Amino acid sequence: MKTPLLIAAIFFTGLTFAQEKKSDTLQTKKIEEVVLTKQVFKKQSDRFVYDVAASPVTKGNTTFDLLKQTPLLSTTDDKTLKIAGKNNALIYINGRKTNMDAESLTQFLKNTPAENIQKIEVITVPGSEFQVESSDGIINIVLKKKMSDGTNGNMRMSNSQNKYNSSQASFSVNYRKGKLGISANLSGGENIQAQSYILRNGNDFVKNESVGDIDDPNKNLGGYLNFDYQLSDKSNLALSWNSWANKSYGSTVELLNTLKTYNSDGSLDKTDITRSSNLENARNYNNSVNLNYELKTDSLGSKLNMNAAYLIYKRFQNSNNKTIVENPAGVFTQLRQNVLQDIPQIVNNFSGTVDYIQKFKNDFTVSVGGNFNATKTDNDTKNFFNYYDANGNLKNIDPDLNHFIYDEQIYGAYVTFEKKFSDKFSGKVGTRYEITKSLGTSEIPDEPMQKFERNYNNLLPYLSLNYAINDKNNISYAFSSRMRRPSFWELNPVKNILTEDNYTQNNPFVKASSTYNQELTYMFKNSYFLILNHSYFKDVITQVPLQRDIVREGKTYRQLAYIRTNFGDKQEMSAMLGMQKTFFNQYLTTNFNIGVQHNINKGTLNTDPTTGQVFDTYINNRESSSIVIQTNNTIRLDKKKTWFLGVNYFFVDKQQIELGMLKNLMSLDVSIKKNWNDWTFALNVNDVLRTNIVEIEDSQANGTYNYIKNDQFRRGGTFSITYNFGNQKVKKVRDIEGASDAIKSRTR
Fold first, then answer.
1. Which of 6, 13, 16 is nearest to 624 (CA)?
2. 425 CB-near residues (< 8 Å, 6+ apart)
3. Which residues form the Outer membrane protein beta-barrel domain (predicted)?
4. What local confidence, expressed as pLDDT, does residue 747 receive?
5. Which of 521, 426, 530 is nearest to 476 (CA)?
6. Pairing state of beta strands 137-143 and 89-93?
7. Of 18, 101, 360, 629, which has the fewest Cβ atoms less than 10 A away?
8. Quick one: pLDDT band at residue 463, thresholds 50, 70, 90?
9. Dihedrals φ, ψ of 706, to 5°?
């Protein structure tokens, strides 16, 4: 059910869930009558730096827990991290992107002790040297530099209870001996992702409602294995392998559909009731290998970094979608329609990157580099539509076959200049030039081969300026231009059936969208902040809900299709005021943010660009303003720093998105944690008030309306036990960026 039914998933990508916490106060020490101060949170050049070694919330936490306490970061689902106003947060370790998929990365962060971390850098507007898309930001985790030989690791087990029970376990180990460093991780788990839906659409004459549940069982197993060898004092060679597998067999959708037609005077004409029953089996595999070479060229920090990577992603998915009506005895057993779908996807990618950083003695840095990606996707889709007559007898079979192959090459080069002019003023300017060449071919039996060719070049400038007015006041500005390429599954022209008259349609004609980001930041005393942000999105890639009347066997039905396409432009403007402080001798650490966001949407569509079918015109030329509030609080309950209570809350006011008006969302989360020697016991209760439920409604001037209510059963509890073993000072030789990382995010 993942691909066709994650309709609600796109709702969250456009939300500005309140950032999170800002700076910590100054830490004070007394050493022989001398008072020293250290800044815990500060602005440096193009990034915010959070010195967690000086923070009171580090002890006993995992890296993920620590990131949730980091200024400007937030999470609303305890799985993904967001940066102030950003759609996504990319994780880097020691300046290099982590080479693992989203699920295994989450487990890695939740099982890495926070004591290993020196500082966390938050880059809200990344420079030209970073391969990011759209308005993505970067979280760079800097590990402590102390190293010693030995072995360490941890084991973690957790059990969660939402609508269903789930469990996870992981084992991580690091080994260091002389010039060789080895790190490995193995994790797995089982869960059932449950959702409920209420879908309504229609007009004054035809109204449709679908109500029901989705149960998606998952089994996951994955991990990584990294070898890093120090060839000399100046060079290193590393080999990394990452793997993740997911099995989802027996995923079900059960919906009851009620169609009502009305006469011109508003009286009810007839009612048609059906059941949609969908059974899906899916499995996917993600494997990547990365070879890295790094050479330090001088004592100032200049270095050469080269990567070569191969990635293969496979997904196999088949489903049996039945539309069932009542038999003469009034029981839902008689078939009206049966759709058999086979939707595989195979992605092969080869990638290479070269980066060189030259540092000069006068605080001047020049960075140059390039990248190459060659990707081929193979999608051999087979659909068979079986139609039945009024007596339930098979009437005809309509095959829908499409073998879609997509080839893409991306060439990129960048140059960045960074200069510290004085202790108060610094700046960074750069540009990235990207060339994209792609060709899609669609083979349909008895039809001429279709070709979809897209070639485009993009110049993506970047600028950031930072000025420290004095010790208490800092102001900075950043601008960047980025692209957002469609994910490979979005290009596959496949139709995913939800009900007889409700489906999603992907689109090989989708082109890359452009994003222009501006951000102005003011900080006071490293504890209070104001962030003004403006983002302009051109040719937004999204799903558009299109409706039309269709006549079948003399009856009028209302069809609803979620069409994947480029849908106009939008703007997001936000102002966020926040505070991050500790009180009562560090017994209370509080992060509080409040802000306002203004969205402007402009888009019009009435035709499916893949099939050419014409629908009622859908228009979203609307604006909305909304309030965003978030606070995270950590309360130390004892002097020994072994008991901690967490109370977190967020509220997002209603706002206009591509699909209509999203109603307000909020969640109250509570946690308690106990540190005991090398053990950590934690209990987290999420969405205590059960208010994190998605509702979207839209009504058009032509009388068409659409309503969605999606409950993902976020209220629940998780109990976890973590054990750290071995020499906790052991660190990896270094963490390696994978050349295929920019491609991985587009496979999901």
1. 16
2. 465, 466, 467, 468
3. 296-723
4. 57
5. 521
6. parallel
7. 360
8. very high
9. -150, 135
Would you say residue 164 has pLDDT above 70?
A: yes
Point out which residues pair with 97 in neighbouring strands: 92
CA 294 to chain centre: 30
Tokens of 208: 């449709």
pTM to 2 decimal places: 0.84
| Three-state secondary-structure class, residue 574 | strand
Beta-bridged to residue 601, according to DSSP, are 570, 622
What is the C-alpha separation between 181 and 198, in angstroms, rounded? Answer: 52
| Model confidence at 146: pLDDT above 60 | no
pLDDT in tens, 215-266: 999 999 988 898 999 999 999 999 989 898 999 999 999 999 999 999 989 8
User: Rg of the chain over CA atoms, in angstroms?
Assistant: 27
- Which residues partner with 686 through β-bridges? 716
CA 83 vs CA 73, 91, 126, 266: distances in Å: 5, 11, 12, 49
Mean pLDDT of the chain: 85
Q: Give me the residues paired with residue 229 across strands.
A: 180, 237
Separation CA 632–CA 716 (nearest Å): 19
Beta strands in 444-511 (DSSP E): 450-468, 473-484, 495-499, 502-505
- Read off the DSSP letter of residue 113: B
End-to-end CA distance of the chain: 14
What is residue 141's predicted lDDT score, i.e. its pLDDT? 84
DSSP letter at 488? Answer: H
Dihedral (CA of 382, 383, 386, 387) sign: negative
- Tell me which residue of 4, 611, 745 sits closest to 317, measured CA to CA: 4
- According to DSSP, residue 485 is labeled P
Q: What is the pLDDT of residue 663?
A: 94
Q: Which two tokens stand for residue 375?
A: 């990707």
Instruction: Output the DSSP codes for 278-337.
Output: EEEEEEEEEEEEEEEEEEE-STTS-EEEEEEEEEEEEEEEEEEEEEEEE-TTS-EEEEEE
Taking alpha carbons only, the member of 126, 115, 132 closest to residue 58 is: 115
Do the beta carbons of residue 704 and residue 547 sit within 8 Å?
yes
The string of DSSP codes covering 718-730 is EEEEEEEEE-TT-
Structural tokens at position 28: 């004070």
Residue 585 has which token pair? Answer: 């001798």
DSSP state of 741: H
pLDDT band at residue 76 using 50, 70 and 90 as cut-offs = low
| Cβ neighbours for 355, distance < 8 A, ≥ 6 positions apart | 129, 304, 305, 306, 367, 368, 369
Which residue type occupies 16?
Answer: T
Percent of the chain whose pLDDT exceeds 70: 86
Give the position of tokens 């004085």: 422
Mean pLDDT of 637-661: 89
Q: What angle do CA 534, 539, 542 make, to 5 degrees?
A: 95
Token pair of 345 as six digits: 């996807």
Q: Does residue 100 have a pLDDT over 70?
A: no
Neighbouring residues of 76: CB distance < 8 A, sequence distance ≥ 6: 12, 17, 82, 650, 667, 692
Q: Which two tokens stand for residue 275?
A: 């059941």
Banded model confidence at residue 185, pLDDT cuts 50, 70, 90: confident
Cα 83 to Cα 68: distance, rounded to the nearest angstrom = 11
Total residue count of the chain as it appears in this document: 748
Count Cβ neighbours within 10 Å for each residue of 533-569 and write b for 16 or more, e otherwise. bbbbbebbbbbbbbbbeeeeeeeebbbbbbbbbbbbb
Average the pLDDT over 117-121 and give the result.
84
**Contact between 586 and 564 (Cβ < 8 Å):** no
Q: Return the percentage of the chain with pLDDT > 90, whole number.
A: 54
Write the burial class of residue 635 (CB in 10 Å: 0-12 exposed, 13-18 middle, 19+ buried): middle
Going from the C-alpha of 470 to that of each of 46, 426, 467, 478, 524, the distances in angstroms are 18, 14, 9, 20, 10
**pLDDT tens for residues 25-53?**
333 333 333 333 345 677 777 777 888 76
